[in-house]
Specification:
4-stranded antiparallel beta sheet; 7-stranded mixed beta sheet; alpha+beta; 17 strands; Double-stranded beta-helix
């Protein structure tokens, strides 16, 4: 692994779980954990370490319900409202439905298709994007519908030294845009405006790794560059971060869980499922995150919109 990145923990040294890496840079299946049963402090600590090391970790055959999903997530941080923009499922404000035809996919047919189309880090338009996301598979097609993740720390390390130095001086504007032409989607985006300025290179708060923080779906421009310069540099970076050597592809089964570090990854929701007659239903919980910080020690700055709160704080705010 590139020497500019911290070395991952040796998978053979874990005492409470079995860590099975899926690629060189990203993704590991975790065995020896049943989230329907109490999980020891030692096991939780090792899961956290595996998450930081491998960016996205997978747990097979967990088969949790909504309540168990929430209980599992709360062991790793504070839950947000299901989705800061698109709401939550009934009776479980922490849970967001990732259905085949969910509102968030309403504008997919209008997007210009590029190799990086659809890749994103969750809700980077917020000043404090979620720390992590925990996605649970319920209804899974027999084939198709895989999800991909990419390691943004490995992508940073894979750049030339002059490019890394240049990018560390830059910041970008991230925002949701109501441009789908679909009333329900655009209405949700307009009601929850989120625009933030983040460093193009952030420092991971746990590993210390430098991360190429360039979420393709939300990063709209680079501060200080001309529109043409910004467009060209962003396209170069987006093409770079989705290179296959930085990615892992996960084939879902019903009952599986994918748990990813939103501070160091982008992911791609499948679009092949829309060409299929099969249904696909997953549920996601996100954990409250911190404000990103650049290599220069300067934090991100808000432009419009409020921070993402814990679910308890958000519900109290709405009730006030």
């Amino acid at each position: 692994m590139n020497t500019t990145m911290r070395a991952a923990t040796d998978p053979t040294t874990y005492q409470h779980i079995r860590v099975n890496p899926q690629t060189l840079h990203i993704g590991a299946e975790i065995e020896g954990v049943d989230f329907k049963q109490p999980v020891t402090a030692g096991t939780l600590q090792e899961i956290r370490q595996a998450l930081v090391d491998w960016k996205v970790i997978f747990f097979r055959d967990q088969n949790l319900d909504h309540a168990q999903h929430v209980e599992m997530a709360r062991q790793f941080g504070e839950c947000t409202i299901g989705h800061a923009v698109f709401g939550h499922v009934d009776e479980y404000p922490e849970v967001y439905s990732v259905a085949k035809m969910r509102t968030a996919n309403a504008n997919r047919e209008l997007k210009k298709k590029t190799p990086w189309t659809g890749w994103h880090t969750d809700i980077t338009a917020a000043i404090n994007p979620p720390m992590a996301s925990i996605l649970r598979g319920v209804t899974i097609p027999p084939y198709g519908g895989d999800t991909l993740w990419t390691n943004l720390a490995a992508a940073y390390a894979g750049l030339s030294e002059p490019m890394r130095g240049f990018l560390e001086t830059l910041r970008g504007v991230h925002k949701f845009e109501a441009t789908s032409g679909k009333a329900e989607y655009d209405g949700s985006v307009k009601r929850r405006v989120l625009v933030s300025e983040h460093p193009l290179v952030t420092v991971h708060p746990e590993s210390g790794d430098k991360v190429l923080y360039v979420s393709p779906s939300f990063l709209k421009s680079i501060v200080g560059l001309t529109p043409r310069e910004s467009e060209q540099l962003l396209q170069l970076l987006w093409e770079h971060v989705v290179r296959t050597e930085y990615t892992v592809r996960f084939k879902w089964n019903a009952g599986d869980i994918a748990f990813w570090d939103n501070r160091s990854t982008s992911h791609l929701a499948p679009t092949d499922i829309f060409e299929s007659d099969y249904d696909r239903q997953l549920y996601r919980i996100t954990l409250v995150g911190e404000v990103p910080v650049g290599v220069d020690g300067k934090p991100s700055t808000p432009i419009d919109g409020d921070p993402i709160l814990s679910v308890e704080q958000e519900l109290a705010r709405r009730a006030a």
